[in-house]
Amino acid sequence: MAVIWRVLSETYVFLRGLFRYKEILFWVILFPLLWYGLMVAIWGNPQANPVTIGVCNTDNPVNNTCMGCILVDAMNESGLFNVKMYKTTSDLEAAVSKGKVSAGLYIPSNFTSNLLSGFQGQVILYTVDTNDGRIASGYLEGFLNGFADQIRSQYINTSIEYMEEGNISIPPEYYNYTTKWLRLIENPLKITENTYTPPLIATSAGIKAFYAIAMIGVESLFVGLFTGVSSVIERKREGSLRVLLSNPISGTEILASDIISGMVAVALASITVFAVSLIVGARYQGLSPASVAVISLLLFIGTLFSIAVGLLIAPLARTPEGAGILANAIAWPVMFAGGLVVPKEILPEWIRGFADVWPLSRLMEDVRKILIYGVSPGEALYDAVPSIIATIVVLAIGVLTYRKLLERAIEA
Amino acid sequence: MAIIEAYNLSKRYPNGYLAVDNISLRVEEGSITTLMGPNGSGKTTTLNMLTGSLRPSSGQIRICGYDLWGDRRQAVLARMCLGYASQDMPFRGKLSALENLLWFGLIRGLSPGKAKNRALEVLDQVELSEYAKYRVDKLSGGQRRRLAIAAALVGNPRILVLDEPTSGLDPAARERLWRLLRELSRDKTILLSTHIAEEAERHSDYVYIFHRGRIAAEGSPRALITRYARKSSIRVKLVSSPVKNLMLKWKYYRQDRELTIIVDDPSSELPKIVETLLQQGLVLESIEVIRPGLEQVFLEVTGELLHGTASVSEVT
Lengths: 412, 316
Ligand SMILES: Nc1ncnc2c1ncn2[C@@H]1O[C@H](COP(=O)(O)OP(=O)(O)OP(=O)(O)O)[C@@H](O)[C@H]1O
Ligand SMILES: [Mg+2]
Hints:
heterodimer; A: 2 domains; 4-stranded mixed beta sheet; B: Rossmann fold; Alpha-Beta Plaits; 6-stranded mixed beta sheet; 10 helices; elongated; disordered C terminus; binds adenosine-5'-triphosphate; binds magnesium ion
């Protein structure tokens, strides 16, 4: 029984101090929320942004009809474009070349009169050969083709009307073919669209879930490393090591008390981030008692791994400040290269290999599999076996290192 | 019966410095035992070793009969037997006095309920009950010291080990702390360190005089004084350091502008001393008669002043 209270002593001070020590509150609650907010604000919206198109419309109306104006109105209403109007072609060219707009469209003054009197309507596109530029001109061309389809439809309908009224005489034996072909020209392809709901990860709700899991992983990484790296050195500085050693608490129990309070910190941070993510609209799959249990286990192992790494590198630090630098020096690269906050898929090939073997990354990936991709907890757990084994091995070495370090601390 | 026994204790720090050099000591149950010595003489080093927080380079320590640095079972039993208030207790400043004591109770293995009861009890014992809810960093130096003692008491140990419990306190706070220690010593053994001779002399049953990592002398204050310092001394402070050797017929120690002259009968010899000094052209700043005490003892057994930094030349 006494052992239990001894190993919970650190958690007691941690919880008591949580709201009184600003730095603890920051690292446990504010830091992950801050990052979460940032990530969601930057990446949270998967809908394509409207492309910005510059338009110079000099079209002259004919009998109150302005085809150029109809085109521009349609562009505005489509929601695909953010249209910026320019008075002259040189203004438009300048805007395109300076990158103020992703593509430009010039509608000359005879656009309407040409279209109404049976001539080709002309427009001029200004495009830039960049990713953005290509996407913009692609959108624009597609849109113009749609507009052209409608004009074609109108001309064909009018032609067929004329034929039916006998205003255009066609030999009876060709009549059927002609109208049929005209209809085919009007619409040569019949496109049937089947629209599916996108997978969770491609939705805003899924991306918000993705980053919530990312932040939980980051918290586990930071708390774990700091716990492991400063367990002995910090205590030595503040003098609590002396006091602990003069009490009936063993080295292993001191370590256990740190691990538990670290776990409580990660749990608190996780619950906070999870709750906030639900408030801002994240959606998760497969939430069940079983999956929550497996996820907690995965998170526990992940944090344990980070602590173990911290323990391993702790002897390199001679001061608590040095320990802090050491932990940061590992945490930040792992945070990005480990695929915690950056989707693994967009990492360069050679970095992805790291995310594939770093146990914390793999474990967080397993958590994602359950919560975002709907993989069963059992399957995810099976997937986690190598990471669990790796964690046990690293932890065993970490504990040995810790014992040596503690031994060194007792010597002076 | 000796509740603390240490034999041939030495500590050489990893940097090679020999801070404690082959000392042996015994603390009788129920006594107040004091380690007295100047800064850097090895008191803290010794107390750390005796409380199980610093591994001795060599030697044996038994606490309540258990081997402090022995196997796990003995090590635990020995530590259960003592409570240590180090020179600067690592209290969490933003937690209350009660919360800090609860933390120490948990470390001791008490359940939260028991720890709380015990914490309230010891707060009462050290007269801090009304400050239970105060944040530790709002407590005065004296209150903090009493809280440190409370922390050492939480586990209800038979031995209290206190490193410089009165340093930095004003005379009133010091007096109050000593009253508390006397009170506690009724059912506890107290081992403490100090560099104040007057304190050691007035309050302790047994004194170990530390000097450069060794025990220079030991005994009850009375015994030490009768053996080493039966005579009084006269301390003279000069306005400036004398350039040449002094011609005095008394045994004296000199440190910079300060002379400590050993005399048999201060009242009859004082005028002669003043006369002699004036004859030699010296200008006096102050004169003080010092009754026999541990400070004298320290001077006699080490040849150095308890609070001196420079070395002392002895001329007879
Ligand atoms: N960790 C250490 N490594 C090396 N030397 C040390 C260490 N700790 C203490 N010392 C040295 O050991 C000597 C004894 O120190 P100690 O703290 O035991 O003295 P003390 O009698 O308690 O002095 P004070 O009255 O100043 O507290 C000092 O010279 C000190 O510099
Ligand atoms: Mg000391």
